[in-house]
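_Backbone structure tokens_
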Amino acid sequence: MPKTAIILGATGLTGGLLLHNLLEDDRYEKIKLFSRKSVEINHPKIEEHLVDLLKLKEEKDKFTADEVFCCIGTTKSKTPDEKKYSSIDRGIPIAAAKLCKENNIDTFSVVSALGANPKSRMFYNRTKGKMEDEVLAQEIKNTYILQPSLITGERKENRSSEKVGKIMLNFLNPFFLGTLRKYKSISAESIAEAMVKITNSSELSLKRIPSDEIKNIANSNYGGN
């Protein structure tokens, strides 16, 4: 039976690639987009809701689907205030997970980050770690938390710190072997591909999926169309 999916963050790099994947996937008949600005794509599958994501709970009646994909994320340069940063990176995914629980949506997939830890001294890792714990606390039947390393791909905005990180990782990637493979950079295409495969397979038992496993899933026929 054709499915309906919700994407949060479709205007971003990973979310945009995910949207294109779902539009080409015959298993999906409708893609609901919740965002503050339009993706500016005219397609019969798309149902766009331009809303304030910080008030997502007010959209409960519209928030109905078979699956929810959350690709929300900001940066320190765009959102220097830590309270506001947390309300985006932590608050929005948690609000989405709570709506999934309330509306009986049993599949929730969210992009987090490698190194997420609620007790970390690093604000970014601590924020992601707290988000993960609170999402899992909702006890949604099929919850998948993807933990990518540095994400590569062509972004619309300029992120100078990421560019430096990518240069360093491109140099170091060949040295990340064995248990260190999860620290290799990963493309947004791989993350988007893995999200679709994960949610369309009953084989995966992992709740938290590290970067190297995301890449393995993306490169396999796991849950493929």
